[in-house]
Fold:
Amino acid sequence: MSYAVDLLFGPQHPALHEPERFRFKVDGEIIVDVDVKIGFIHRGIEKLAESKNFIQNIYLTERICGICNVAHTLCYVQAVEDMAGIEVPERAKYLRVIVHELNRIHSHLLILGVAAELLGWETEFMYLWRDREAIMDIIEDVTGNRVTSAFNTIGGVRRDINNTQKERMLKVLDKVEKDTRFHKKVLEEDPLYRERMVNMGVLKTRDAIERCAVGPTARGSNVDYDVRAHDPYAAYDEIPFNVIRYKECDSWARMMVRVDETLESINIIRYALKHLPGGEIRVKVPPRLPAGEGLSRVEAPRGELIHHVFCKGDVKPYRLKVRTPTFANILAIAPTFIGHTIADVPAILVSIDPCFSCTDRLTFVDVSSGKVMKLSLGEIKRMYWSR
Amino acid sequence: MKIIPKLVPTVVKTVFKKPVTEQYPYEPPKPSPNIRGKIVYDVDKCVGCGLCAIYCPSGAIEMIMIKEVKRRIPIFHLDRCMFCHQCVEVCRFGAITGSREFEIAAYNKNELKIITPKERVKPLKVGEKK
Amino acid sequence: MDLFKLVEVVVFPGLMYLVVLAIFFEWYKRKLVARMQSRLGPTYTGFRGILQPLADFLKLLFKEDIEVTTGDQKMLTLVLLVAPTLFIFSLFFVPVTGYTIFSFEGDLLLVLFISSIASLLLYLVGWTFRSSFTKAGAARLLLQIVGFDIAAIALALVPAFEAESLCIATISEKISSAVISNPLLLIPHGFAFILFLLAQQADLEEDPFDIPHAETELVAGYITEISGRKLAFLDLFKDLQMVYVSFFTASLFFGVIVKPLSAVLVIASSVEMFLKALLVLFILFTIEAASTRIRIYNLLDAFWKYIIPLSFFSLSLLFIIKALPGVLL
Structure:
């Protein structure tokens, strides 16, 4: 007979930086079952996108996720370009790669810091975020803002890089590489960090493929899957790089994938800066686009990101569908909580780099009957707005 | 010796180094020269086409009619502005330009509006070359 | 009781001096850990923010005291009044200024006993509430006390046997000469010092042993439901614990070099003890800054499998070294 009690993590909890609820069934300190409930910060962005024109939607999709904003805009503009058959200049493709990789470095260093903080290692958190500041400065220098870069646009990019920026960037990248190597050594060898992360939340290769894990979560489980390598977009088909994989399949491996990807990203940026072609950075695009649909896949810092745009020959998209990486990863990782203690929950949860506000969708499905519940505007008014 | 945390030497060394914190309001900020800041509006170059208002993603630009001179001019609500500079990009006459100013916090929303006084708005001459 | 003793208890090496020290050590901790993390730490109040802990304490005193109806508030008030007193009382036996206010043969055991009681009182703080976070925090705290306390008591006996006394004042006087006269003693002495520091780190609930109030798991552990004045006294309690741990460790393992025979020498010896306490805290905070939190199972593993056997090993090593000349001769 088990004495399992419910322990609620969230919607408000110090280990969660965004509201989401996890109901753990706990026997003593051991987790025996987990139930994930998403949907606390549904923002209706897909619906809102239908009322805005294509250019405005760039800035809207940028705000789906602040941290991987470049991935979102890149994915959206690529989907629109795919739909309208727009060819992007070579230089713009390289510039997109550079900013995309800068964004990846900043995102990976951020989550490594957050992971350290969740394990009570404030010093490593401070060091990682201190070293990340250099990357933020060059993002600000190149795009015009620290976080929301507003760099990609339909038909190219909005800003060019000059030689002084290039040199400054190379100098900063050298420093960041040195710092990242130091952090790699620390995270690889620190006994207490290893104690907390190794063998936590083991997601076997087979399970990772079955449950459709994407991004560093999949690559930490030794799945050879990277959109940049297997379905190249922008200029990735011309840039050589390695797909990082780890065989350990645990939380530690997932975090180490991020460390190594940071180093790999630095090499990609160096290559792109060296082989930056000349020419235009954008082509003119009319506001009204022809009818059709476009799909784009991008390797966001958290994993594979999909934007699907459908247009009926208007200045606005008829439908915009987004699938974010956390949506795939959260379901893949949920069963791995079972068998661990409450103290391991932050260590496992942080290893997928959860971004819940990207994830939230509003479709309720009754699992037992398979019935999809939908509410019309009239029903919502009747049920919730009546006073 | 394997159980000693790897950060111990770095931690001791960092005590004797200068902290990296920037005490922002007391120290002057060091933003990049390329940042997107507050927008600057030049009424003399504007023709009142309203493209900026159409493309503004956050609806921060409102077109108003000035009856005395029979033309439209924009009002910028900086409290809604998110500094994407799409209006700067879309303006064909160079009437809106960017600046580096970013310290625009205010107690009142009305202080954040860029309203051009009526006297400054001149009637538009049709056919005039810009 | 004569007036001089009363002044001693209330003002100089006693109550007021200890509270001032507690507030200073809180500042020292915040500033030092901030510098270790390449931050600035408190800067606004007073010279380099030295008054910040006092400002926080006063601010908490004036705040509304939100009483959780499911908790036993009378019990909590009693605990929070008694707990800081216990540390102040036990510090009367520790040579904070080089000499002690009260002293008798065997006060080491009394001090160890009182400090264990004070740690146990913290458990009652968590247990008075019906919240799951405080309950879990309190349960973890109890497990932690079971882990470190035995090791701490066994290790405190090492300097006692070296100096052949159970009086803290006598130990701190004799320890340096005892170790110098027999350099072989340095081995169990250093060994015991490192292990004792770890045990005290667990007592202070700093990283890697801040398990009872692990933020990302249990919000604030047993402190979760406390606010206002009660939180102020709990903070004061933790600061006094810091003073107790640093001076107790310093007097047991470092000894006193300057003997407080006259008024000038009292100042010199209190400065000496103060610097030693700062050194002890520096080591503790370095460990705190450089390590992650471990799990409660790891803590029990570490203490019951390694530290407690090692502490008894160092104790027996000490006996062998002490007995060695007698056997050889």
Q: What stands out?
A: Chain C touches chain B through 15 residues (CB under 8 Å). Residues 65-324 of chain C form one domain. The mean pLDDT of chain C is 84. Residues 82 and 118 of chain C are 8 Å apart (CA to CA).
